[in-house]
Amino acid sequence: MTYKITSECISCNLCQSACPTGAIKVVDNSLWIDANLCTNCVGSLYTVPQCQAGCPTCNGCVKQSTDYWESWFDAYNHVLAKLTNKQDYWENWFNLYSQKFSEQLQERQCRVWGVES
Ligand code: SF4
Ligand code: SF4
């Protein structure tokens, strides 16, 4: 189980320079921990995970959940953000879809009622 950067991160980059394995990287302008490189600082000079220990926020860097689906969605959102270069791809998609759907519904109602939109 590795550590992960959360939305509470203020991008101070302290953890990136503190990480002994180089696991913390900048991807699409935000920090991300490579699970393949994070060792939880076990086997290093340190007795506590350096990313969490030095973080100025309370929850900018936390241990990954053991919940399978939460971890799965974290990984999915990360890959999706890389592919689309957008953190909130589905939220934007849904907002756009809702807006278009409302417009079409309104046009249809106007046509049925014979009112100009
Ligand atoms: S727990 Fe240690 S190895 Fe893992 S990201 Fe944090 S500082 Fe790097
Ligand atoms: S130390 Fe904390 S706030 Fe600073 S970049 Fe790392 S996770 Fe973000």
Ligand set: iron/sulfur cluster
* Overall pLDDT confidence: 85
What fraction of the residues are assigned to beta strands by DSSP?
Answer: 5-15%
Strand segment tally: 4
- End-to-end distance: 56 Å
Sheet with the most strands?
2 strands, antiparallel
Tell me the name of the CATH class of the largest domain: Alpha Beta
H and E string? EHEEHEHH
CATH architecture label of the largest domain: 2-Layer Sandwich
Q: Record the strand order, biggest sheet.
A: 1-4
Class based on secondary structure composition and strand pairing: alpha+beta
CATH topology of the largest domain: Alpha-Beta Plaits
Task: Please give the share of residues in helix.
Answer: 40-55%
Shape: elongated
How many domains, in number, for the residues?
2
Quick description:
By secondary structure, this protein is α+β, with helices and mostly antiparallel strands. It contains four helices and four strands.
What descriptors fit this protein?
117 residues; alpha+beta; Alpha-Beta Plaits; 2 domains; two-stranded antiparallel ribbon; two-stranded antiparallel sheet; elongated; binds iron/sulfur cluster
What does this molecule look like?
The structure is a single chain. The chain has helices spanning 14-18, 50-54, 68-84, 89-113; strands spanning 3-5, 24-27, 30-33, 61-63. A hairpin with a 2-residue loop joins strand 2 (24-27) and strand 3 (30-33). With 117 residues, it is an alpha+beta fold. The strands form two sheets. Strands 1-4 form a two-stranded antiparallel sheet. A two-stranded antiparallel sheet has the order 2-3. The chain is built from four helices and four strands, in the order E-H-E-E-H-E-H-H. The radius of gyration is 21 Å and the shape is elongated. The mean pLDDT is 85. The chain has two domains: 2-64, Alpha-Beta Plaits (2-Layer Sandwich); 66-117. Bound molecules: iron/sulfur cluster (2 copies). One iron/sulfur cluster is lined by residues 5, 9-15, 31, 54-57, 60-61.
